[in-house]
Specification:
Elements: E1 9-12, E2 15-18, E3 21-22, E4 27-30, E5 34-38, E6 46-49, E7 54-57, E8 59-64, E9 66-67, E10 70-71, H1 78-83, E11 89-96, H2 101-114, E12 122-123, E13 126-129, H3 151-154, E14 161-166, H4 175-182, E15 186-189, H5 196-205, E16 209-210, H6 226-233, E17 237-241, H7 252-259, E18 263-266, E19 278-282, E20 285-290, E21 293-296, H8 308-318, H9 323-328, H10 332-338, E22 355-358, E23 364-369, E24 372-376
Parallel strand pairs: 1-6, 2-7, 8-11, 11-12, 11-13, 13-14, 14-15, 15-16, 16-17, 17-18
Antiparallel strand pairs: 1-4, 2-3, 4-5, 7-22, 9-10, 19-20, 20-21, 22-23, 23-24
Helix pairs in contact: 5-6
């Protein structure tokens, strides 16, 4: 308390990014939630100086397997939660892999426990990537454990799972997608051989998103636009790994022109993120990381070592959008997809005081969660 009147804090001298633009106001007022923006600092507030840095909502990574030697399938997400604020991430979905049912269940139990605790970045729940995928588009997933959509694997963890990647050709009737929506879970098309008609039917049945767009799905073809064509013409969200490896940066401007408000930047990062090149693992399979590229021993791309703030920088650099517009793709867009935009991702009054300070190159200088600084490099 300051003088027994208020817990108000203020960060002055910042360039506040909200709603895809830089505001005129240069002061953020907050407690554990955002109070308002202002042009002057109230006399009762405790003040920090932002020294001209950008201030925006904290980044949300809805697809991340691991970071700094820890993996969702083998570790508690507590370590990831503690480390990810260095990349500006204030909330994330630890993402499972296609492994045996018991291993997936154990990962879900660990995630459930960490949802109750604040270690740094918020654990929002789980992104269940597989095992309901197509064997021929398994990518770096282990084909041994691929199964058709199974409600019995989802229902016990309906309180944990926020998003499920599945192949819609294995749900021809659309009943699985509709059931997920009834549970409040986002169905996301991915690791799929679906043609245009199958993909469009899936979106109509309730699929809301498209997992790591362009990857692990048929390429766009002039006689069968496939998942890519169906996603581009409708309202579906698309996940984008903007590392310039998984998707050519020459495609970024096309995507921003067509889907700017529906792009969710992700990392798909595996345990090698934040660590040197070398031998690691993903979903129980060995991965070799060289020159920022993570591959299985057969050469298949195996996630990434991308940091989400780097993805924002790449989108601003190559996507023909401003930095504030690129930031929306890692804040407001995923928050809207996950139905949490009233709590985070927008920096609007009443939302959680989860925000970051960064420079023009998207280097993170400080990260705040619940109004408290959880990372600083100033």
């Amino acid at each position: 308390m300051k003088g027994g009147l208020t817990d108000m804090k203020a960060i002055k001298n910042v360039r506040i990014i909200r709603g895809g633009r830089i505001l005129d106001e240069t002061v953020l007022l907050y407690e554990n939630r955002i109070l308002d923006v202002a042009s002057e600092v109230p006399a009762v507030a405790d003040v920090l100086d932002g020294h001209g840095l950008y201030l925006c909502a904290g980044l949300i990574d809805q697809h991340i397997h691991g970071y700094r030697g820890e993996d969702t399938m083998t570790h508690s997400p507590a370590g990831m939660a503690a480390a990810l604020p260095e990349n500006g991430v204030t909330a994330f979905l630890p993402t499972t892999m296609t492994m045996d049912k018991e291993a997936i269940a154990r990962a879900m139990e660990r995630i459930r426990e960490e949802q109750k605790i604040l270690h740094g970045a918020r654990v929002l729940g789980c992104h269940m990537e597989g095992p309901f995928i197509h064997p021929s588009k398994k990518g770096a997933q282990d084909g041994t454990f691929i199964v058709p959509p199974d409600r019995g694997m989802v229902e016990p963890f309906a309180d944990v799972i926020r998003l499920v990647t599945y192949a819609p050709e294995r749900d021809a009737s659309g009943t699985f997608a509709r059931w997920l929506r009834e549970l409040g879970i986002v169905p996301s098309i991915g690791h799929t051989t679906a043609n245009y008609e199958e993909a469009r039917s899936a979106y109509e049945a309730g699929a809301q998103s498209t997992t790591h767009f362009f990857n692990a799905m048929p390429p766009l073809h002039h006689r069968d636009p496939g998942v890519i064509g169906a996603a581009l013409e409708g309202d579906a969200y698309i996940e984008l790994i903007a590392d310039t490896i998984h998707v050519s940066p020459h495609l970024f401007p096309i995507l921003t022109r067509l889907k700017k408000d529906r792009i969710c930047l992700i990392t798909d990062c595996m345990e090698a993120g934040g660590l040197p090149d070398g031998r690691y693992a993903l979903g129980g399979q060995p991965v070799e990381v060289r020159d920022r590229r993570a591959r299985l021993l057969d050469g298949t791309l195996a996630g990434s070592v991308l940091k989400l703030n780097e993805g924002v920088r790449n989108m601003a650099r190559f996507g023909e959008v401003s930095l504030p517009e690129a930031i929306r793709m890692a804040t407001e867009n995923p928050a809207r997809l996950l139905g949490i935009e009233k709590e985070m991702g927008t920096l609007l009054p009443g939302t959680l005081a989860d925000f970051i300070l960064m420079d023009e190159a998207c280097n993170i200088r400080a990260t705040f969660v619940d109004g408290a600084c959880v990372f600083s490099n100033r």
